[in-house]
Amino acid sequence: MAIVYDKEQGIFSLHTRNSTYQMKVDGYGYLLHLYYGKKINTFMDYMLPYYDRGFSGNPYDAGEDRTYSLDVLPQEFPVLGTGDYRSCALKVREENGCCGCDLRYAGHEILDGKYALDGLPASYSEQAQTLEIKLKDERTGMGVTLLYGVLEDCDVIARSARVENAGKAKLYLEKAASVCLDFLYGDYDVLAFYGRHAMERNVQRTAVSHGRQVFGSSRGASSHQYNPFVVLAQQEATERTGECYGAAFVYSGNFCAEVEKDQFDQTRFLMGLSEEQFSYPLKPGSFFCAPEVVLSYSPQGINQLSHNFHHCVQEHICRGKYKNQVRPVLVNSWEACYFNFDGEALVRLAEQAAELGVELLVLDDGWFGHRDDDNSSLGDWEVNEEKLGCSLGELSERVHQNGLKFGIWIEPEMISEDSDLYRLYPEWALQIPGKKPVRARNQLVLDFSNPQVVEYIFGKISDVLQQGKVDYVKWDMNRSLADIYSGNAEEQGRASYDYMLGVYRLLELLTAKFPDILWEGCCGGGGRFDMGMLYYTPQIWCSDNTDAADRVRIQYGTSFGYPLSSIGAHVSAVPNHQTGRSISLSARGIVAMTGAFGYELDFGELIEEEKEEVKRQIKVYHQIAPLLVSGKYYRLSNPAREEYGAWMVVDAERMNALLSIVMLDIHGNMPVIYVRLDGLDAGKKYKEQTSGKVYTGEALMACGLPVPLQKGDYQACQMIFEAVEDEQDGKSGNANCR
Ligand code: GLA
Q: Which residues of the chain have pLDDT under 50?
């Protein structure tokens, strides 16, 4: 049983394959957190700290017992106003401004299957179990149901909370986190994934210290600046050893992750919606649902933690036809021709692409309204037939005739002031009455909290997808939200949250209506790279930065929480359009190939030799693509600190593996670089495809491989290993770099 309740002790134990999560309803009805870590079968309540602490108050029912204080005890869902002065999970304000909610246990249920959240993305699994714990504040009538989903196979505990006003007066939620994790002791590091447009998910590892460290977004999207994925690792933990915890928010809007070391050196971790501009009104009888946080624990280092999340995303977050499928190799028109194209140019690109083995042509921005630059037409989802020289159906047909699938770019959440839609419905843009709005990329944001807007856009986009017999959609979002004011909302404190619900509703409507379409998320590249989007789109354009050297670092950071199959990665032209750097086509291919692979350049500009290289890359990709969908990913270096990036992928049977190495920094008379492999079977022998050399798994993992020294910037090599029988044994030695 994944969920066990001991009635006598009031203890709940949630077991996954390698972890246990435990909590207790104590004599006062408070739900205390007992333990999260290695799998155990012991009740951990003997660890609870009961001491008389100065300036740590006591609940009234504790009577004379000064050793009982919520300021010190570890809790499951701490609320403001109970004498716990650490950061809390829930703040409830009454109409008179008073904040004094006191939640006590009111019952629980253990259910088969995994809970779902109405209108919100969440992990799913038929094999899972759900625990619902009901807490209640008698005075206000506020009820909270804590939801725990136990996904044993990937060592995941999913959490959410449903807050209900069963009282008589209106209440406001000023904060509603989804998770609180209290640790009684221990020195932790927090790994946050920070960045900016075109340089997302850099890894920052810092010690958790006294005070609060906060990472989050108030941009309306999960953001380029901080990813809603955080790791808490024992300070001595490495990629391969030590205990660590990860938390991923299954939500694509504002968020907040906090970590705090308290006065007694205890650590509290919180994750959930951001408090900024959040004040959710709860009328009597209404409820609110906090988005899900997916938690995982690894006793064997951070790489294992990543495996848990990769497995969870692939099996329990992504949905639809493509979730476990090799994705088609695509060419995207954006960096190939930006806004400058007509139908003939696109057909030419499709013909060239077909010759090279590309399988999908994506028509990016610029096909609708009168959009020849990024200043107009968002909202006018009418095909610009004059520009194309044909209808979208005709263009799609010609692309299909070349044996390619046909894809299209949309940005449904946006509106240009220069658009028919804006001229007709200016009130559909998020704007504060009487204030000039903040523009970004010269565009405004549609009020997706208004169901009418969502329905309208659904109709328009549906028409386009039908006309164009579209096989793939890139869903973009190219600005942060400001001016949070919905003409549709009674109260503005709920507008950002309702906006996200509107986005999810449109995603749900469209993905359900067009189940054969491959959906790719995008937000100026990786500004909304999160599990909320991955519930609808099994891949996301990782970054607008296609420079292979930068991409090594961006994809490295992304890999901590997200599987390779979700990472959109393309080979683009040199000099690179974002950095001006030139890197060999071979190295660009090696980097892009460990993701949802494609090209983003004009094949007409390539010389014959380069075309041959593209053909070769696509062949190699087809060979390794199954690994990317189901293999285990190992980080073998830290490319932000070391002069090279190295990573590998190994299939479940440990028969096939791919090793990729990219030199990032070259110096005179370099020391040799040795790379130690991982994830192989120590008892097997592996043949490297290009050199034909055979190595033992034990040697590759215990000692590794020397990387041949080569001169020149950004040399890269890719080695494909296959397990072989003894008789195929060959000589061992250095492998060759291409
Ligand atoms: C964003 C995307 C790009 C491209 C452009 C089009 O920046 O990230 O890939 O689609 O928009 O305007």
A: 730, 732-738
